[in-house]
Every structure is written in structure tokens, then in C-alpha cells.
């Protein structure tokens, strides 16, 4: 969907959440970016999923989101991991590379993950990741020290990592940035 204002994306999530609860739509993945004042990451995924239908509890769902970002980082030779106790998100050393914020309502997820591909890290000099003062924000570009493929390509790789880890094999891409998913059973 390109760059979308956070409030517009929030309204769209609420609409899709309502439609998913009413079973008017299947599992859907919003793929977008926010202006840097709204989020940590440049690649944002908002899954609108029925946890019951995919057989996951809340903890396992969050772990799968973390693994999605860890797998993407590993494609570029970056060793990312989950944070220490009390440190949400995905980290490379003492630098936060990915954030997670989920909402689950009636067994349906919204919100999701944000992964730093190559944002201007100057925007984040005044952010204290997870309220931990001795931590910093980092990005895939900073950790690799190389020029990356286009952000669109890296974003597509993130979607592919998500689909593989969640067991979705048949993605239906929409021109508006929505991605409907079919799960192999």
C-alpha cells in the first residue's frame, strides 16, 4: 500500500477486523509503511487473522511474528534474536530492529510488526526502545553495512517469511496492498 498515515491504516484495520469477525473476508495481511513519526519500522505488516482457524494461541502468534523478522534478518547475514526478559521485539545486540504490537479481539488479530529496513535513524534518536534507556534503534541497512535491494523487494521477502512461518501457501496479491491468504490444512 506504500506509505499510509497511521490513523488511516488504523481505520482500515478496524474495518477489516469487523469483516473478518463476521466471516465476510478471509485472513488478510496489510502490507505498508508509515511516516517515521508513527512507528519504529519501515516495513509494517498488519495481519488480520483468526487465531482459532490457524490453531495458534497468543504467545505462539507473537513468537511467530518475532521469527518472521529474525528469518528476514538472517537472509542478509544479520543475527537477530528476541529480547531479554522484558524486552519486546527483535534485537541485534543492543539495537532494536523490529517491533511488535498486537491486538486480539474475539480471536482475530490486528496490528502486528514493524521492521527497520533502512529508515533515517535520526528520527529515532529521541526514542527509548521499550522504555529501556541503554538501548538503541538499528536497521537492516546499518547492520549489514551494505546497500540493500529496494525496500519493496525486502518488504516482499518479509511477507514471504511471514507466509512460510504461518503456513500460508497461496497468497492472493491485491493492487491496493492487501494480501489474502489461504492456509494449507
Automatic annotation (TrEMBL):
The protein's name: lipoyl(octanoyl) transferase
EC number: 2.3.1.181
Top class in the EC scheme: transferase
InterPro entries: aa-tRNA-synth_II/BPL/LPL, BPL_LPL_catalytic, Octanoyltransferase
GO molecular function: lipoyl(octanoyl) transferase activity
Domain BPL/LPL catalytic: 1-170
Keyword Acyltransferase: yes
Pathway of action: Protein modification; protein lipoylation via endogenous pathway; protein N(6)-(lipoyl)lysine from octanoyl-[acyl-carrier-protein]: step 1/2
